[in-house]
């Protein structure tokens, strides 16, 4: 197989993310950012598009250099300090003034993984909640999986740890008592469970002020949870503030998002700046599909330097690879949708704590999950979509590799190719994002180990990991 890196040239002027539709005005501001924050490497361009309803004369688009400038309560500021969040990321600098403005305005925000999106909407939620009514639901955050819902619940509780009377509940299967129903000011849940609770009159939505949808590209996709999210929205007050967040917004989903959150301010990164800068993106040229497993096992020692996530296409594949690796003496765990909720919670808790270091999963963990120790992501199967998995899935690739390289940390992604279809699929994804991939060969393990360890053990992401090939998207 030809060298993929030599076939994919990095375009000098990769296409920017599609223009946002007609619901926004021409009031558009491009902001060059160079000063790094304490959270992330901020050398990327943020594009803001203000809604028609935004009064330009009020000059709402300003940059804050500290959380204190936002007028947050002392309790929220104390929570940020306790988490060592001393300065906003660039995304937070741009988004928070708009989201916290009064009267509240909708927001569609697209930004790469690990740039502080969750903290941005959590701060907005905590600022909107009246804590003198601790059991009255006032904010709803929707996520695509129980794992992500639990993680967001934990972030809200941590940021709001000094907020007196703050109660945060997870509306996921098996978590809300049928006897009491929802009794919290902030609810984080999955759409199906939220719909059931509202229908059973166990969730009073009449006082909700803000609706957040995380991973909104997936949640609003008509092939995904789009219908459920529409039904949930139709149950809520018409005046609710809607905040949509995702690392990716394909054109057709963005058009739909603009209808879901009308007259929204918009914030996005340019297309070529979407891939995470701290991730060295590599590929392994496997002789045949049957060789992928043996190559995976040879990588095991590198996987356990930190912790690693192995993404596969199907649940059956995850279970089978786990069975074979354990039989060969490797300690791994598998997590996918076939597991019951409590088992999934326990497996993810083990992975977070380091008791488990290698996790095999399907796309259930591709979105949003933040485990700080993840240093490697392996695409055992290249993500595909469409009937018969015929089309490369660039968005899922980006979400998968975003499980490492979080908040400016370094990381490695290795994608396995073995035939023309997988080769062409990865080529398409690399061209889409303007990535120069580093080729690894199963015949040269010294080079493979050197390249991977060089990244994982480095204190900062380097710009260059191989001759004539750069990592990330620059």
TrEMBL record:
One GO term of the biological process aspect: mRNA transport
All residue ranges annotated as the Helicase C-terminal domain in the record: 295-453
SMART domains, per database record: DEXDc, HELICc
Annotated membrane topology: Peripheral membrane protein
Keyword tags: ATP-binding, Helicase, Hydrolase, mRNA transport, Nuclear pore complex, Nucleotide-binding, Nucleus, Protein transport, RNA-binding, Translocation, Transport
CDD domains: DEADc_DDX19_DDX25, SF2_C_DEAD
Alphabetical list of Pfam families matching this protein: DEAD (PF00270), Helicase_C (PF00271)
Domain DEAD-box RNA helicase Q: 65-93
Helicase ATP-binding domain span: 98-267
Family to which this protein belongs: Belongs to the DEAD box helicase family. DDX19/DBP5 subfamily.
Protein's UniProt name: RNA helicase
Species in which this protein is naturally found: Cercophora newfieldiana
Source species taxonomy: Eukaryota, Fungi, Dikarya, Ascomycota, Pezizomycotina
